[in-house]
Design brief:
Length: about 375
C-alpha cells in the first residue's frame, strides 16, 4: 500500500513537472518578440475584414489590406484629442500650464478598467505630495500611458464639439464622432438600476440598444459625473458588472475609423507642414515622447505613435522620419482577436516597426509577400 502511494505521488510530481515545462514553453512562445509573427498574421488574414493594414514608405503605398474598412480604434482615437488640445493651446483658448487637480481626473477614473494605465501615469510623475499637475501633463498621460480618465477630462475641457470639428478639418469623412469612452463603461450599471435587471437581462438590453442612444447615454453620464462624481462604492459596483461579455459590447461600440483615414492623418503629422509651427509646439511634446530617448534621437528626426487595445482589439497608428529623410506611416487595426493573437501582436508590434524602419531587405520582402 505504501509503495502504491509512493508511486502515485511520484507520478503526480512527474506530471506536475511536465505540465510546468509545457506551461513555461507556452508562456515563452506567447511572449516571444518576433516581427515575423506580424508578417505571418497579415498574410493569413488577407481575406479577413477585421484586419486592416495600411503602410506607406516615402509616400508610396507599401501594404494595403481592407484599408476602407471601419474598425474600433480603441485608444488610437486619442490622437484626435491630442490635435484638438494642441490647436486650442496654440490659439490661446487653453493654458497648458494650468494646474489640474488630480481629484478632478478621479471623476472619470474607474479602477481596473484601463489595464493600470492611469495608476502607472500617476506613479511616474514624482508628485511628492502635490495634488495637481499641469494640463500639458494630462495630455501626455493620455498618449503615453493611455489614461482613459485623462481623455474624458480633456473632452470636458476642450469640448466634444470642438474635438469633432478636427475630423472635418482633417477631411476624414469615414471617422465616427468621438464620445466619452470611460463614461460609456457605466452604461450597463445605469441600465441595470433603471429597470432592476439581472446581469443576463442587462447584457441583452445593452446589445439591443441603438448606437444613437448609446452615445447619448455616455454623454449624459459624462455630464452627470461633473456635477455628482461616483463614490468608491459606486465605482466598485460598476467594476462587478463589467464581465467579458459586457466588455465585448463596449469594445464593439468604440469609435470606428479606417486605416485609410489614419494614414491621411499620419501623413499630416509626419510632414510638419500641414499644422502650423505654433500647433506643433504643443503637439509634438505630446505625440512624440519617443524622442525623449537618446537612442531614438540618434537616428530619427521625429517619430510619434498611439496604440490601443481591448481584450478583442489591437490598433496602432505610427509615423516617423529618419535622419536620411525617409518617412514612414503605419496604421494597423485588428478586431475580433483571440487572446493569444492579441498578446502575440502586442508583444511583437514594436519590433515589427523597428524592422520595417531600419531593414531594407525586410521592407522589400514584406511588400512582395503581401502583394502575391
Amino acid at each position: 500500500m505504501k509503495k502504491w502511494v509512493w508511486l502515485t505521488g511520484g507520478l503526480l510530481v512527474c506530471t506536475g513537472f511536465v505540465i510546468g515545462i509545457v506551461f513555461w514553453k507556452i508562456q515563452k512562445e506567447v511572449k516571444k518578440d518576433d516581427p515575423e509573427y506580424i508578417v505571418q498574421f497579415m498574410k493569413e488574414n488577407k481575406g479577413n475584414k477585421n484586419v486592416s493594414v495600411a503602410i506607406q514608405y516615402n509616400r508610396l503605398s507599401w501594404v494595403e489590406q481592407h484599408t476602407k474598412e471601419p474598425l474600433p480604434l480603441a485608444s488610437t482615437v486619442k490622437i484626435i484629442v491630442a490635435i484638438a488640445y494642441a490647436q486650442q493651446a496654440a490659439d490661446g483658448h487653453i493654458n497648458p500650464q494650468q494646474q489640474v487637480r488630480l481629484r478632478e481626473l478621479e471623476t472619470f477614473y474607474i479602477p481596473k478598467t484601463d489595464g493600470g494605465a492611469h495608476e502607472a501615469w500617476l506613479a511616474q510623475l514624482n508628485l511628492n505630495g502635490k495634488g495637481s499637475v499641469p494640463l500639458s501633463e494630462v495630455a501626455k498621460g493620455m498618449i503615453t500611458y493611455s489614461s482613459n480618465a485623462n481623455t474624458d477630462y480633456l473632452m470636458h475641457v476642450l469640448g466634444l464639439q470642438n474635438i469633432n470639428e478636427v475630423l472635418t478639418q482633417l477631411d476624414v469623412k469615414g471617422h465616427e464622432l468621438l464620445y466619452p469612452i470611460a463614461s460609456a463603461l457605466y452604461i450597463p450599471i445605469q441600465l441595470r438600476d433603471e429597470k432592476s435587471l439581472t446581469k443576463k437581462e442587462t447584457l441583452a438590453a445593452l446589445k439591443d440598444m441603438g448606437m444613437a442612444e448609446y452615445r447619448e447615454r455616455a454623454l449624459a453620464i459624462h455630464e452627470n459625473w461633473l456635477e455628482k462624481p461616483l463614490t468608491k462604492e459606486e465605482k466598485a459596483q460598476a467594476i462587478k458588472i463589467l464581465n467579458l461579455d459586457v466588455q465585448r459590447v463596449w469594445s464593439d461600440r468604440l469609435i470606428k475609423a479606417s486605416t485609410s483615414d489614419y494614414i491621411s492623418i499620419l501623413e499630416k503629422l509626419n510632414s510638419k507642414n500641414y499644422f502650423t509651427e505654433d500647433v506643433h509646439k504643443y503637439l509634438d511634446p505630446v505625440m512624440e515622447q519617443l524622442m525623449q530617448n537618446p537612442r531614438n534621437q540618434g537616428w530619427l528626426t521625429h517619430a510619434g505613435q498611439k496604440g490601443g487595445s481591448t481584450a478583442f482589439v489591437l490598433t496602432l497608428a505610427a509615423y516617423a522620419e529618419d535622419k536620411e529623410g525617409n518617412q514612414t506611416e503605419i496604421a494597423f487595426f485588428a478586431n475580433d482577436l483571440k487572446t493569444m493573437e492579441q498578446i502575440k501582436l502586442s508583444t511583437s508590434m514594436n519590433s515589427f516597426q523597428l524592422k520595417f524602419l531600419t531593414d531594407e531587405k525586410f521592407r522589400v520582402r514584406l511588400q512582395r509577400e503581401l502583394s502575391e
